[in-house]
Structure to design on (384 residues):
């Protein structure tokens, strides 16, 4: 398009005068650490605040719910495609899997489908350490770096069972966070036995709630909870509050069961909200990681591995794109109309890719107007 028309969408959209090759882009970006993009995450976060989105998403005593989870974004069994930052798994058959992973925190809400992407923390071997990094160690670093911005007593951390252990719970409290973590009986045998013994001597608090589910069908929720439960059998064990829910359909069949630990005081007035918030943790997988991997962002695609930071920098750009698209759906009327009209994110990306291949647009507004006119929506909707 540049050669035939004298300009291209790379120039009009991004002010790129000379288009570099793929290899040049990779070589240029490889030395750049992902932390150089932190300010962009902060700008998007502030924009969500200004739009009132983060306030509307608050739950559990009006706190911000931050879900933590680790996810892989690259893996290879080739000895030629790995770097010093790769983690590895040695298999019994002699093969080695090299991989990259990261903690990808998001703000979630029981009442909102959207999630707000926060700055990631990469699971990589740390300087001065011989052992490989792990998800919990990376999550602790995330707390250290971002507590001042996200905690201040106004955030509740959500996480799966690996977070429901004393060292991480203590770290969360020391940094000013509240927590609400999944607590499986199989991995918390001492706590589970303590609750069982308590039930025999002093009945656990409980209540029931009858309500309609998302499909407008009746279900019954049975809640149980107790306070001051030792997380471990040690003398200095952290005392936590334990809660459980069992959900039954209208035929009396159990359809869901889970339990959690928290530092929040539990009562009949807030147990339902606590459970709803705890279950919202799944949005980090369903509405974030799964979307990034299967809905057009290709998070696990090897766009370029590099020898230094290329792989982690590219995935950070991917997370930024996802965050910006979520913000645009909230704040940009034209974008929201088009996205709501098209069936999937993939379809939207395909339309943009096809249109920009054949036509040079003056700017993004020109493209949005062209798409709305073609779809006959917004100011171009047909009038009866």
């Amino acid at each position: 398009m540049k050669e035939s028309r004298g300009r291209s969408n790379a120039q009009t959209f991004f002010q790129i005068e000379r288009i570099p090759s793929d290899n040049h882009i990779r070589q240029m970006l490889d030395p750049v650490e992902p932390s150089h993009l932190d300010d962009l995450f902060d700008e998007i976060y502030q924009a969500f605040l200004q739009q009132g989105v983060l306030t509307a998403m608050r739950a559990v005593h009006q706190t911000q719910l931050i879900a933590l989870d680790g996810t892989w974004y690259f893996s290879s069994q080739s000895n030629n495609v790995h770097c010093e930052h790769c983690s590895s798994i040695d298999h019994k058959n002699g093969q080695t899997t090299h991989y990259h992973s990261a903690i990808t925190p998001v703000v979630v809400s029981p009442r909102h489908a959207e999630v707000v992407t926060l700055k990631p923390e990469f699971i990589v071997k740390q300087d001065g350490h011989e052992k490989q990094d792990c998800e919990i160690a990376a999550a602790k670093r995330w707390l250290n770096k971002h507590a001042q911005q996200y905690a201040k007593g106004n955030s509740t951390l959500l996480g799966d069972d690996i977070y429901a252990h004393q060292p991480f719970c203590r770290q969360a409290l020391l940094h000013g966070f509240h927590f609400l973590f999944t607590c499986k009986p199989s991995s918390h045998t001492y706590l589970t036995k303590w609750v069982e013994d308590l039930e025999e001597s002093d009945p656990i608090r409980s209540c029931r709630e009858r309500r309609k589910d998302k499909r407008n069908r009746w279900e019954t929720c049975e809640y149980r909870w107790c306070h001051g439960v030792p997380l471990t059998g040690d003398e200095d064990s952290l005392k936590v509050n334990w809660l459980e829910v069992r959900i039954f359909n209208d035929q009396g069949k159990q359809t869901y069961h889970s339990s959690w630990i928290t530092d929040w005081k539990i009562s009949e007035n807030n147990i339902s909200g606590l459970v709803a918030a705890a279950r919202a943790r799944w949005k980090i997988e369903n509405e974030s990681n799964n979307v990034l991997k299967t809905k057009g962002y290709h998070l696990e695609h090897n766009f370029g591995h590099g020898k230094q930071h290329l792989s982690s920098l590219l995935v950070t750009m991917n997370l930024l794109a996802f965050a910006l698209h979520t913000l645009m759906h909230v704040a940009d009327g034209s974008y929201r109309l088009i996205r709501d009209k098209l069936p999937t994110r993939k379809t939207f990306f395909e339309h943009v890719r096809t249109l920009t291949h054949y036509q040079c647009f003056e700017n993004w507004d020109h493209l949005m107007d062209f798409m709305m006119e073609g779809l006959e929506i917004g100011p171009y909707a047909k009038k009866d």
Q: What stands out?
A: Residues 310-331 form the longest helix (22 residues). The chain has a mean pLDDT of 93.
